[in-house]
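Sanity check

After download, print the first record. It should look like this:
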Amino acid sequence: MIRAIRRFPQMYWLEDSRYRNLIWVFSNTNWFSNVEALRMTFRRGDWWYWERNEALTINPFRNGGRNKQMHQDMLTTQRGGQVPFAENTWGLVFEKIPKLKSLIIDFETSKDKKQEMEEIVKWAQKWKFPAAAIPGEPARNFSAETNPVEKMSWQGMAYHWSDRCVGCRKTRWQQINPDCTHCKEEKRLTGWGYGPRLLVWTLSWSSVLKD
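Expected structure tokens:
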């Protein structure tokens, strides 16, 4: 009997209306009927268009985490408002796991995107996901607001480099820019089989009474 599970979903599994594979799995199978603890890890290569080193986007309230909409929803939350969940968004899948008690999400990215991820993690601490309804008991949410954020880092592998330099924006197929410190550092580390420094933030959601 499976009571704990870890998933490594790519963003298109969550937010692309043509796929939404993770939502289908939670909604149409009994695999998770006894799961009490779920961990989801978004790795460096799971983010939309990470190969082009584009801005990080994620949004549990929408069927697409595009950057502009994400920042609008961030602003709403910062002002004390509540962003409603759209139909069939990945933020609603946790209420389909009847025995779920705890949720952990890892957010991983490269060091050059630290500020972007810090903003997302700060916002994610305010995400509240509906929990499964239990007959005769009050409604509950999963909340991360009172739980500490764990942080760690590690040296990535060569395949973790994006295709575009974070400094001069040249692609790896173009000639190395001798004046770009980022290009030179990437070349040096790649020669040793290393990639960029990767940073990981870990947030924990607990079941609490709904506000």
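If your output differs, re-run the checksum step. Summary of this record's structure: The two ends are 33 Å apart (CA to CA).
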